[in-house]
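USER:
Working in pairs, take the chain set out below, taking as long as you need, and write a paragraph about the fold.
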Amino acid sequence: MKSIVLAAVLATLLPTLCSAADAPAAPTEARDGMIKVAVVLSEGATVIDFAGPWEVFQDATAQDSHGNSVSPFDLYTVAPGKTPLHTTGSGRHGILVTPEYTFDDAPMPDIVVIGAQSGGPGLSEWLQKVHADHKMIMSVCTGAFKLAKAGLLDGKQATTHHWYFGNFARDFPNVKLVKQVRYVQADPITFSAGGLTSGVDLALHVVAERFGVAQAQKTADYMEYQGTGWKSNQLAAEFPTPVTREEWSGQFAPESALTLHVVTLGASPTLTADIPSQHLAGVPATTKTDNGNFNVALAIAGHPATFEGKAIDENTITGTFTQDDKQRPLTLKKQAPN
């Protein structure tokens, strides 16, 4: 009976015992002001992109001038509006988050964290304002697209998730894409991290730069994070990137067929087209998709062409082929792999 009672008591005390024995000493408030970290959120934010750096900054401690352990970072969320938004969630709505501030009323941060997300009105302008005030901005994963869209990476180096290298290079040719690293410093105040967990490495790098490697290691140890990319900025191994291939074919005239070849590296597609009746093979093509609508542009010298269509099902796209001011109906069918 006594052992059962003791076990029950220990069970209730275990969380307290754990935190008291294993966690760093409870920090006091920073006496000389805290480093304000604004975490940008919008619909579809990838959880680890913001939660990883958030955890690093909330767990980091430093010593004040009196030798006390302090929490140097003050974290808050900022978004286009204060309406609750959903994070990613594996085919369904994810975590519901209510932003604390908007771009209009947020305190000027010392550090901005922006991960993969949809973005929203005012984001580019706010990032430009923060950058102009010489505050640090760090992107995680495809958050780099938001920095590039705001013009903060023009003529500079950056990285992003390896699945999106092709998309990034296509959309931002004035940015030098760097691969095989955990993070990149574009200028003294602008950084980009690769995908997902690389945001943890970049945040630990920031802690190390500001408070020393020992404090960053203490933070990593408390988090039980054993990655070393924040020290070396190197990948332990190259990430494999899946490659998928598709062919879509259809007739736009009795003797004229169009075949689209789609090779997707990670999430970055490359398109080429064949039109045998015009003796064309491997013509570069670009595409835009929006809610099942497809717009394909074919770079045919002297006779550019477009195909605008809508997905009927996963194997059929029907629409209009336009070339030399002539419009013809065209239905593309996905071909079975050889």
Remarks:
- The CA atoms of residues 169 and 321 lie 28 Å apart.
- The chain has eight helices and 21 strands.
- The longest helix spans residues 2-22.
